[in-house]
Amino acid sequence: MKHLNRLLVAAVLFLGIGIANAQDENNPWAVEVGMNAVDVYSAGLNEDQVRIPAGARGDIFDEYFNANDHWNILPSVSRIALSRYIGSGFVFTAAGSINRIDRLGDIPADDLSYYGVDGEVKYSFRNALGGSWFDPSIGIGGGYTWVDDIGFGTANALVGVKFWFNDYLALNLQSTFKNAFEDSYGITHFQHSAGIVFQFGGKDTDGDGIYDKDDECPETPGLAEFNGCPDTDGDGIEDRNDACPNTPGLAEFNGCPDTDGDGIPDPQDECPTVAGLAALNGCPDADGDGIADKDDACPNEAGPKENNGCPWPDRDGDGVIDKDDQCPDVAGTVANNGCPELTVEVMKALNDYAKTILFDTGKTTLKPASLKVLDNVVAILKEYSNARFHIDGHTDSVGSEANNQKLSEGRAASVVNYLIENGIASNRLVARGFGESKPIAPNTTKEGRTTNRRTEINLIPRN
Questions:
Q1: Quick one: angle between helices 344-355 and 369-383, nearest 10?
Q2: Which terminus of the chain has a smaller tally of CB atoms within 10 A, N or C?
Q3: What is the side-by-side order of every strand in the sheet holding 454-459?
Q4: DSSP for 298-352, written as a single string
């Protein structure tokens, strides 16, 4: 049993297996170092092979896994193989092995020496199985074996499986049936092996240090951080995603520069050397009246466009003349007819509350703890009486897509109904459900699923 333990100890490496690439045209060479076991008993009865006593053999595959009684194992590195990929899933392997035979079936042997050299052609089923870490194979071959200095030829048939840890390292388990040609002194037997495979020889067409199989731009030298694609201007944005590949720029502008730092990339900035506003194509508006200084007759005093940027009466100073100001005594915005806009901070407060809205498990009914939260939402919505909102429900991916869609719609409707019941006009609210379609965190973790089960409040833009 101690020999069996030595042979199978490598199996513990199975716990660390991940997706990897098997031996192919991009990694054509591999070296294997491992151990082998010789089993005569399970190779079947052959009365013509007089070198082995009849009691040393059972039927073919008889006690095939009885390593303790029948396997001969040398407790050291005892097999070395060199492999070359030859195309279409086929690999040629040349292998050499040594061993010591101290048992022939149930019959003790006088510590016979064992040497073998073999050639193998194997076919891998990895691609047929989707290219995962699991790499089974079958093969045929031939070789020459010496037992106690008496040599004989063999015809071989084999099955094996590799488990790839990464692009370069695998565990190989193989069982080979060796049928001896010479009856008078040949010994038909099984040879089992376990070894670590080291793969090498990857192809790198553009010479950038990244193998073609991993290189998204295999014919153009590039950088490892961009999977082999170039960054000509050195701005950290690969050329194929860079709108200005020959001028260093910023990622937020797809690789284009922003000379004046106003947040508008130079190609879209009508005033590229003077900081301005996006609404004015990058040109400044000193008085904030929505008219670019270059078009404003009163650039330092806010006024309407109809008056070339010069002011008309506006007692609240919000840029909306009193006759058009729906909130003439409260400063607002031009876009909101003189009434105050919802700020980013207010929207954040609304959504912070929304995140804490809880429902009964698998239901659309609100938990009592959520009512205080919703009362706070009601108070904020009443402060902005002309604003309209989407109430959006979202779920995680647990359960069917149809059930999640229905659940998200029902929960959004429950929130809308509560708000209407507490004084918010129904025409200001629209309930929407998105089910599991818009996750903001991975659904593979408990924390991610909790984050995805949420309610959001979004401002409906004005027409």
A1: 160
A2: C
A3: 429-433, 389-394, 454-459
A4: STTS---GGGTT-----TT-SSS-GGG-SSTTS---TTTTTSPPPPHHHHHHHHH
Any idea which of 235-244, 340-349, 385-394 has the lowest mean pLDDT?
A: 340-349
Higher pLDDT: 419 or 361? It is: 419
CATH class of 2-200: mainly beta
**Do 323 and 303 touch, CB atoms closer than 8 A?**
no
Structure tokens at 308: 């070339």
Integer Cα distance of 428 and 387 in angstroms = 7
Assigned architecture for domain 344-459: 2-Layer Sandwich (3.30)
Residues 217-234, buried b or exposed e (16+ Cβ, 10 A)? bbeebbbeebebbbbebe
Q: 3-state SS of the chain: helix, strand, coil percent to 5?
A: 25, 30, 45
Domain ranges of the chain: 2-200, 344-459
Residues 294-321 pLDDT 10s: 888 898 888 878 888 887 777 887 877 8
Percent of the chain with pLDDT over 70: 94
360 has pLDDT over 90 = no
Question: From CA 9, how far away is CA 177, in angstroms rounded?
Answer: 23
Cα 349 from Cα 315, distance rounded (Å): 30
